[in-house]
Design a protein that fits this description.
The chain is an alpha+beta fold. Strand 2 and strand 3 form a beta hairpin. 37% of the residues lie in helices and 23% in strands. It folds into two domains: 47 residues; 83 residues, ACT domain (Alpha-Beta Plaits).
Length: 151
């Protein structure tokens, strides 16, 4: 029997109420993206942030402009290896109005496979939380994470 997975909600929060570690994580991510830091260690050192704090927040905090402007998200799935799972997953994604841009699937090991998928969500007609919930409800989906957004 499949267990209910916790639903992750998304919020728009003003910068001045964010904890300092989240702000510094955003700074470090920007430095890495723009090539102003050569590594995570270099970026976190420059903004005076621990690496553990960076890794805690890096996949959970994003600049608002990147999500609104680009409308591309990247999702990570941990799936049971069953025939037709990718097809069913793509069916749910298509049913929400998203356009699949890229798919990367690992070779299944020990009955599990990882899939990373980039989606154009410009035409998506439901809320992001609703789409993620639909994906999590699939019997073979063990995990869904939003890795980020970008072009």
């Amino acid at each position: 029997m499949k267990q209910n997975k916790p639903v992750k909600k998304f919020y728009l929060v003003r910068e001045d109420v964010l904890p300092e570690a989240m702000k510094k994580t955003l700074e470090a991510k920007e430095m890495i993206e723009r090539g102003k830091a050569e590594s995570v260690w270099d970026a976190v050192h420059r903004v005076d942030l621990s690496r553990s704090a960076f890794y805690k927040y890096r996949d959970t905090v994003f600049p608002f402009h990147t999500i609104v402007k680009e409308r591309i998200i990247t999702l990570f799935f941990h799936l049971e290896d069953r025939s037709g799972t990718l097809s069913q997953l793509l069916g749910v994604v298509a049913s929400t109005g998203c356009n699949v841009l890229t798919i990367h699937q690992t070779i299944p090991l020990q009955g599990r496979a990882n899939v990373t998928m980039s989606l154009n969500v410009t035409e998506m007609y439901i809320e992001m939380d609703q789409m993620l919930e639909k994906l999590r409800e699939l019997e073979f989906v063990e995990k869904v994470d939003v890795l980020g957004s970008g072009a």
